[in-house]
Structures are given as C-alpha cells and as structure tokens.
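Pilot study result, target chain (435 residues):
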Amino acid sequence: MGQSYFSEGMAHEATFSLYMRDYPPDRGYMVAAGIDDTLDCLNALAFDPTNIDYLRTTGIFTGDFLEFLAATRFTGSVRAVPEGSVVFADAPIMEISAPIIEAQLVETIVINQIQYQTLLATKSARCVLAAQGRAIADFASRRTHGTEAALAMARASYIAGFAATSNVLAARRYEIPPAGTMAHSYITGFSSEIEAFRAYARMFPARSIFLLDTYDTISGARNAALVAGEMEDAGHRLTAVRLDSGDLDHLSRQVRSILDEANLGYVRILASGGLDEYEIERLVNNGAPIDMFGVGTRVGVSGDAPWCDMVYKMVCYDDRPVMKLSGGKESMPGSKQIFRHFDSSGLMTGDVIALAYENIAPGRPLLAEAMTNGQRISPRENLAVVRQRVAEGAAGLSPPYQRLREPARYPVEFSSTIQELTQHTREQLVASINT
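Predicted structure:
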C-alpha cells in the first residue's frame, strides 16, 4: 500500500481510529493498556540499512520508494485515552493522524501492542474483582507466548491491581514487588519433605512459603506446622503455605484447621494452579479460607478470550471523511472524541462518541494529545499512577457492568452530529458505487 500511495503521489494527512467492534465473551468493559509502549514504537519508527537491503531483495519495491522509506520517521500526532482507562466497544482508544504512508505503516504494531496488553489487563482486573481484596501474584511467565509476552503480563497485571510478580526481570524493569515460592523439584531434591522445609526456613526465615502438595497435602500441612513451631522457637514466623493442586476449597479448610490447632493463625494460605477469575470467584464466594492467590496460565494467555476484535480504520483523508460499508463491519467517519458521563455518586452512566470538535457537556472528554510532530508530549507515566487509574475506573462501574458472566451492556451512544455525517458519507459512497 505504501508503494502505491507513493507512486500515486498521495501524501496528505490521514486519521485512523483504533477501537473494538465488540467485547470478548463475558466482558462488559476493557482496561486499556499498551498505549505507552505504542507511543515508544511510533517514536522509534525507522528503516535501517539492513531493512532497506532486505526489501530491495524482494523485487517488489521501486528504488525511489526505498529511498523514501530510508528517511521515513513518524511525524504525526496521536490522541489516546490515558493508560489504564476503562474503555468500551465502539469508542476509540487511540487516533493517529499522519501522512498516509506513515499512518498506514504503523497499523500492525499499534493493534499488536494495545490489543494484547488490553486483554491481559482486563483479565487481571477481573481476577482482582473476584478476589475481593485478597492479594494476587503473577505466576504466568512459564506459559505466556514468549518472554516479551511474560513481561507484558507482569506489567498489565500489576496496573490492574496484582500485588507482585514472579518474573524478576519485570520486577526490575517496572519496579514491581518480586515474589516467589519453592517448586516441587526443590522438595524432591531433599531426602524428605520436612528437611526441605527446614532448609528453606534457614535460608529465608522472614519470608518462607512452604509448598504442601508434592506428596500429600495434609501430611505436608502437618510438616509445615512442625517446622513453623521450630521457626517460632528461633524467633521467626512462617509466612504462608501454598496449595497448588486438588480441591482447593476442601483442602484449604483442612489445612487451615491444622494450622489453627497448632496456634498458627498468622500463617496465611496461598492457592495456585489453574486459577482464573471464575475459579477465584467460586472459592471466595464459598468462603474458602484462602488469603492469597497466584495466577498463571489461564490469565497470562487470557485463556477464555485470547483475542478481541480490535481494528484500526481510516476515518479521514485529506480532510475528507471516509468510512467502510461492509456488512457487520461498517465504520464511522471523522476524527472523534469520547465524552463520559457520571451520576452524582461518581458512577459512570454512559459514553457519547462525538466528532472531535464537539462539546457534549457535562461529559468528561477522554482522548487527550499524546504525541505531536512525532514526539511524545510527556514521558511514560509511573505505574503507580496507572494502577490508581485502573482502580478508580473499576470503582466507577456499577455492579451489573462488572459481572464476570453475562454483564450488562454499558451505554455507548453516537452524537447526532456524527450520525448525520455517517449518513451523508454513506449516501455519497453509495452514489459513487452506482455511477
């Protein structure tokens, strides 16, 4: 496409809008993430000599176009919702305006970064909701789809409200509290389970978490209680025990009883192993005495919803509104703004999508300038700020929109002005097709 635009002399500004056509199953809202990474990608857009050499070997592109690419940088502007914002279907998460070749070139990386991280942040936020105040740690790195995905998961889950990550690189890079426990292999490396517990307690007297289910969970709990008593005699306290398999509801009750009988009420129970928001919700609602959760595979790959229908559509070229007419995939023309409305208690009551120049009072506009002339307006936000934004966004949603299954549909409407523009543009396009 870029080669064709170039050959046709098409260099005017185009505006593209990134949004979701609809929600993944059982989602009533999404948490926007990956925006900061996308801005960094746009800032870094460049074709180095090896890229140009490769493109030349394909025989597809003309020499003058390759020279053009060698000098290409992103020079456009970006408006986006702030990282961590609660967003809804149809409403733009980001709009990019740039010379058409630049704006077209970045399509894949923009969708890739924001779609994936938004899925992870949303899945993680749902786990936080289900846990009802219990701490959650990211244990997903082993089964995410690559090391970069593991880093994205650690960051997305932290801004969504997780307390820690087992990914040490992510902990260092993003200043997330690191967390970890022993593996089953650690225990099998010793002559007995109790000796493994004792060795671990000697090394980490202030932060030991014993894994109970290597051989038998109930026997493991009794061994943990014994070693915890020895730790008390030495002036230390066992932090927690971990359940990683079996009926977590039933086992947690048995383990809690064993710990309490040994006067170890301060020892917490951490559950892990195949958890997601649905299982966490079940355990919490059943009153299982679980204090913390470690989540991995199902959240790290957003198992029940590994993709969403996020699209990047041109809405304007050379000041001319454009749209797509395909059945079921019609797009809305024109650069846009989102206006969010609230009730007197601060709960969201609905969003109105309008043209960028409109003012739908008393709604709060969400899209803000993030880049101008190819440069970021401000540096990456501190994750604590983003984390607070996610928490406030979730608190602003009424319970029907937060339900984990079959949530209510949050109201998103289009202004009369954008509806009129859409109708006019559609009529013009249909007329051009029929002539």
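One observation from the pilot: The radius of gyration is 26 Å. A full batch analysis is planned for the follow-on phase.
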